[in-house]
Amino acid sequence: MGNTPPIPMRRPTRSFWLSQPGRLTGLSPMMARAVLVLVLLLCAIMLMTPAPVDPMQDRLALVSATIVDHLRHGQSFYPAAFDALRENARPLRPALLAVPLPALPVLVAKVPPILAQAVLIALTIGVLIGWARRFRPVLERSGPRTLALTLLISGLYPLVTPAMVTVPEVWAGVVIALSLVQRRPDAESTAVALGFIAMILSPVAMVHALVMLILAVRARARREMLGWIVAIGLFLLALAAHAQALNTMTSAIDPAIALPGAALSPGALVATIGSAQILGRLPFWLVVPLTLIAALGWMHWRQPVARRASPTLAAYALLLMLTDAGGLLPLVSPLFFLGVVFAPDAIHDLLVAARDRRRITVTRVVR
Fold this sequence. Notes:
- The chain is mainly alpha-helical.
- It has one domain (47-249, 263-351).
- It has helices at residues 29-48, 56-72, 77-87, 95-98, 103-110, 113-135, 142-156, 168-182, 188-201, 206-218, 222-246, 266-275, 284-300, 304-323, 329-336, 343-355, and strands spanning 2-3, 7-9, 359-361, 364-365.
- The strands form two sheets. The chain has a two-stranded antiparallel sheet. The chain has a two-stranded antiparallel sheet with strand order 2-3.
- The longest helix has 25 residues, at 222-246.
- It starts with a strand and ends with a strand.
């Protein structure tokens, strides 16, 4: 008589809200426990390092609004931009980092404020509709769908207030959210075109384009890869022309941008992201776990749109932590907390895997 080797049999995992398994489904017990411990450890670290943040509107809108005001009074763009920076005691060197690209301020200055806000609202409605179409098939019940829509509105609403209409990064963040959701195998050119528009509005959108290019290279999507290379190349030409126009307008006595003294602490990063959200009005001890489970939810969601959105959000969050640049906030905030709606399935699957004790079936073979 002899015994066959033990056959491990894992208990099947049922979805909690999602209609399909996620990327954290089926982890080994050791890996699931490691993820849960890491989440709890990060939560403790963030709660111990809170930091107050300035309101996003105060950090982003003042100079942009002043530039537009000067343009409406007849100044050309570059003198208007430098005057606005000096009036608000902002650094001028290097000018390429201090002065925004002219596309948005010039366009906004030429139309009534209410029209500019209406266009921005229309774009945000497009974002809501596009993302609702993506998450609706994977959320089986109306409750989770309503929660997902509420989280999207929470991220987008602060961006469409009148004070935000003149901020290039706000427009770029909305257009990037639209580019991500429009990206499909049959609509790559639409996503690339929107990504290019975002870069022309604000140079920080180039991070999104680079992430998308890297993912296209990894997926061997040659057509999409070529599209992003062309879009980035055209943007760099526009940026070079912008830099050339700035060269003669600064002097050595102009104040320079100070290098960041230190990276944001984890708690300060969470507080900063929360400040751009309606959810940021919640107590800090609630914002921290919400932030972590949002990140966990993005990791778990398996759809291709999430595989592109999550590294884009992670890249901007990392840059925000390293630089404390308020201009990066609108590129993180519109979509970040949408991940909360996918987190219950991630937590459920991690807990099931962590508790899993494999049942051993032994088959006796009689010779």
